[in-house]
Amino acid sequence: MTNALAVKRLTGFAPICMSVLSLALVAEGVIQYGNHPPADEGWQAHLFQLLMAAQVPVILIFVGICWRSLRQNLPVLAAQVVLWLAALGAVRFFAL
Hints:
Mean pLDDT: 90
Radius of gyration: 15 Å
Order of helices and strands: HHH
Low-confidence stretches: none
Number of domains: 1
Number of helices: 3
Largest sheet: none
Oligomer: single chain
Structural class: mainly alpha
Shape: elongated
C-alpha cells in the first residue's frame, strides 16, 4: 500500500469515526443530564468541540487527495458531511 493510499483511507475513515464518537458523547450527555445540562460545561462538551473542529481540516485533506476521483469517493464524502451535520443537529435538537 502506498503512502497516498494510506492517507486517503485514513482521511476517509477518521472523520466518520470522529462523528460517531461525537454522537456518542451527545447521547451520553442526554442520558446523564436529560434536557437540562449543567451550567458548567464538562469534559464531554470540550471533547465534542475538539472532535467537531478537528474534522474540518481532515475532510478538506480528503477532498484535496481525492480531487481527481471525487465522483468515485463521493459516498465517503457524503457520509462524512452527513454525520458531521447529524452530530451538530443532535446538540441543537437536545438543546445541549
